[in-house]
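Something for you to look into today, if you have time. Could you write out one complete protein record for me, on any chain you like? The space below this message is yours for that.
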Amino acid sequence: MSAVITLSKIVIKLVLALFVVGGLGYLLLLALNWQDEAPSVPALALQQQLLSEPVAGNGYQRYQAQQAALKTQDNTTLQQLFAGCNQAGCPALAAADTTQLEQLLLENTTLLAFYQQLLSSNHWQEPVLASADELPAFQPLLNGQRLHLLQIYLLAQQGHWLQVEQLLAADLKFWRNLLTENRYLLTKMISSAAIERHFNLALQLTNLPKPAETPFNITPWQQPFTESELSLSKALAGEWQLTEQGITAALHDTSDLNFLEKLGLTLVRPLYQPQASSNELALLLSCPQTEAVAELSWYQWFYNPLGKMINRVSMPPCDDYLHRLAQLEQQRQQLQARL
């Protein structure tokens, strides 16, 4: 019995020692995380990217006001026609019955007319958002483009090549403008996908018989993609801001937490330094990352440990995005080679 009592005392002492060591370790972490950093140059540069004066002719506002009414239409057939489009062309579209395609246009005249009005927009200025949930649904916009390209395809079959060129030029000019102005990775990739669809349809058109004396003369096809079009800098500034907003909301919204969860959040919240996290994320979002933040020494994790962990979890795959954007220029060159 005395051995059991002795052992129980040892266990109690060990537990108390662990609590003491843990408490002292936590207090040491609090001391190390007592003060936040000042804004860094990269963070200030990203902040500057978010500043913009309101513009006239903002297509984003026009679309946002109408998209809820436009998304009620079922466009499954339309999406299937373009689903198989690739750099070899659009086989489903080529195999479809012309009468069916014309009927599809007639059933969607409202969306097609709105999309073609949108093509005349001078700007596409996306606002600074508190959450990505505030972005509108973009499926109606993409369906509008599909209808526009479908109309182009039918006009090409009928030999109306001058009108085809005008509509193609307007479509690509619109999306290349968006590619420069997109403020978020989601919308940047939506623009990229729309341009890919444009080029795939254009490659399909090169398979149609066309008089030799009327070569394609579409200016946006002839212009190489610019650095600003293929850059992620503005989109990453938006992602940087969205990440900050999301972390702040998560650390301070305790409405759905139980007592233990609230206690845990209260204990870890001081281990997050907002500006230090913002500064580091600005470096991580430089794409490619700088060597200064590629690997941290073990002792560097004691300052702002929560912020460092969150930053690494929320990092987007920059290389994948940059590769997809670079492919747009390859597609443009491939199209030019086919003409």
The chain has a mean pLDDT of 86. The CA atoms of residues 221 and 267 lie 57 Å apart.
